[in-house]
Amino acid sequence: MPLSSTVAIPLAALTLALATLHAPPLRAQETDQHIGDPERGRVVYRSVGYCGNCHGWAGDGKSGTNLQAPVGPNLRETPLDTAALIEVIGCGRPGSAMPYHDRAAYRDGRCFGMGLDDFAPGNAPPRGKTFNDRDVANIVAYLETYVIGRGEPTYEECAEFYDNPSARACAGLR
Ligand code: HEC
Q1: Quick count: other Cβ atoms within 10 Å of Cβ 124?
Q2: Within the chain, how many helices (H) and strands (E) appear?
Q3: d(CA 173, CA 128)
Q4: Average pLDDT score over the chain
Q5: Is residue 145, in this structure, part of any structural domain at all?
Q6: Phi/psi at 35 (5° precision)
Q7: Angle of CA points 53, 56, 59, to nearest 5°
Q8: What b/e string do you get for 139-161 counting C-beta neighbours within 10 Å, with b at 16 or more?
Q9: pLDDT of residue 65
Q10: Number of domain units in the chain
Q11: How far is the CA of 39 from the centre of ligand 1 (A)?
Q12: CB proximity list for 148: less than 8 A, separation 6 or greater
């Protein structure tokens, strides 16, 4: 290995360490690539998973739900922690309308050690859009940042959700 590179690496590391000493603390989402990005998670919630069909755009189980879809519980009041959120989004809830989204769900035992064959006919959880681990982390970050514990939905949240201040769904909240 040429001498220049053996010296350059520790120097770069030292410079980085010194720079971070003076930098403001990073938000958790930025320090660990396995922790999700809430803004991306909002897009997955809204436009990939269509979670709002059942949980509402606001996650409250009513605002903007699809009247044809089964009603999902109020996620604003869920007691679930991060691990439990990841599990329910990945594996769904057997015996309910909550779909699973993990691409390996019920294939390799990661969901309760079960395979689809273990369910009585018609009882397996429905399959939602397939998410990778990053999508799930992003959705969980979205829920934890913007939904869980946020009380009643507001017009500002609605406009941000639809990325459109004149979204029809938000009119009643003005
Ligand atoms: C077809 C309707 C439907 C869709 C779509 C749906 N859910 Fe659900 N979800 C449900 C139902 C019904 C339950 C309640 C399951 C039960 O009975 O325990 C639930 C439960 C949950 C829970 C557990 C809440 C708790 O407190 O136990 C979370 C979290 C959740 N859903 C998130 C999501 C997310 C995120 C998406 C989109 C990726 C999504 N859901 C899509 C219907 C749906």
Answers
A1: 18
A2: 7, 2
A3: 30
A4: 86
A5: yes
A6: -95, 140
A7: 125
A8: bbbbbbbbbbebeebeeebbbbb
A9: 87
A10: 1
A11: 20
A12: 59, 75, 76, 77, 78
The residue assigned the tokens 């996620």 is 75
d(C-alpha 84, C-alpha 60), whole Å = 18
Q: Is the pLDDT of residue 166 over 90?
A: yes
The residue length of the chain stands at 174
Asked if the structure places residue 86 within a domain, the reply is: yes
Domain that holds residue 44: 30-173
Calpha distance 158→150 (Å, rounded): 13
DSSP 8-state code for residue 65: -
* Residue tagged 């406009």 (tokens): 159
Q: Which atom of ligand 1 is nearest to the CA of 126?
A: 1
Q: What is the CATH number of the domain that holds 103?
A: 1.10.760.10
First to last CA, the chain: 65
Q: Is 99 in the pocket of ligand 1 (CB under 6 A)?
A: yes
Model pLDDT for residues 90-120, shown as the tens digit of each residue: 999 999 999 999 999 999 999 999 999 999 9
The helix/strand/coil state of 163 is coil
Pocket flag, ligand 1, residue 136 (CB < 6 Å) = no
